[in-house]
Write a structure and sequence with these properties.
519 residues, 11 strands, globular, mainly alpha, 3-stranded antiparallel beta sheet
Amino acid sequence: MSWRLTQRTCCNLLFVSEVYRSKLGSGTHRDDDLVYRSVRIEDARHLQFHTLPRDPAHAGYGQFLIAATLTVDYRYSRCMTIKKGGAMRTSISWSVVTGAVALTLLAVFGTEAATASDLTPEQQLGKELFFDKISQPARSQSCASCHLPAAGWTGGIPGVNLHGAVYRGADPQRFGNRKPPTNAYATFAPVFHFDGTEFVGGNFWDGRATGERLGNPAADQALGPFLAPVEQNMPSKVAVCRRVERARYAELYEEVWGPDSLDCSDEGYEATYDRIGLSIAAYEASPEVSPFSSKFDAYWALCLGAGNDPADCGLAEGDQAVLDPMDVLSAQEFDGLIEFGEYCSACHVSHIPGPGGVAPLFTDFTFENIGVPRNPENPFYRMDEEFLDDGSAINPLGDDFVDFGLGDFLRTRPEWADMAYANDGKMKVPTVRNVDQRRGPGFPKAYMHNGVFKTLEEVVHFYNTRDVPEEGWPPPEVDRNVNSDILEGVPLGNLELDQEAEDAIVAFLKTLNDGYFEP
């Protein structure tokens, strides 16, 4: 397998060859330009490292390859050709760490996953479905219309983000009530359940894509917008099936799911429809959508590889020289991780590996009401004058509408309805991965379930000062069940952070954007 790294990341991984020479090297070979090592580790794997040149004069864009084979003997084959030119920092802080570095890189960056350009047939089918405008009116909206890759798999229209933040449906007069969440890393959500203390899992802001039927909340979620009248507005599951049946990728569907699996008959359309959702979820789980390729991921891999405990790495509990021996994070970003660990990681978990040992997912999959005010520009408030095909108003309450989030979903389930009031106003804790991913410099984003906040600075300041009267924040949309947990001895909403601490948290959040290296 291979990873193509950006120039700035290559320099952060240069230390690997030096590590193996000084700690585990069983042989060293040199020529005028390149240094490479052969090493032995007590594990039945064969790692082959192509390293970048030590001489900064030869620095430039290159590739870093790790190949695994079933042999204990570690030998070097040949060096890579490095394109000369460009600039790379020349001050390298060489550190002695264990052979776990390489194994950590394999684990974190994925020993099983395909590269982003090498999707499995099921993932490729899911991608075709994700970008296909299966909608009514025809060819007017796809999943990607609201989940744009370049915007972190969420809304990608600047004017919408600057105001109401809710995206229009295939019928351009119709709007829902919430901004689109990111669907990157959505497949890690567990099936919605009550754990005895709180509700956990599911997808959508209110958890209603439970995953109970298909075993995968992301698959349940993928099927919802097709039939939603304020989204893709398809009239039925059969109609979706017929669109896929006529698509250029219809043969791929049957390659993935078997001969005659694309069955739109009365007996077959339900199963066909479910497999559409499962295919989209497979794409969302692929390294193209959920690649773990952020600056934080590079830091995390190297921190673990240096023998540090995951909790220390994810909370920055220790000296930066020990936790971050290659200075992947700037001093401000590292300080931001310290502050984030103290005040944010209780919900946006930064220190516990995800399922299967992947890097932290920055969510605990629970639900919270953090006192977000309503967004007066939300177009849903005007949907009392827009009607569905049956003549009913999309939002009969108009300006009086209140989004009770999880509580309203629980009211639809008899087994949980008596817990609805205690969960009113709660929304899913989203991952903050890609929270600052933008289409370009100056591209505006919207935050929270209703898009009321427009900058990360505003979001962090709200968490810090929500309950400080002189700040003048609007009242919460739902004024009960508001989270006021005590963090480091102070309550959420009055954390007493100074401007330097707020700025550091924002700087750290920006390290969570995928694309720092290319898997």
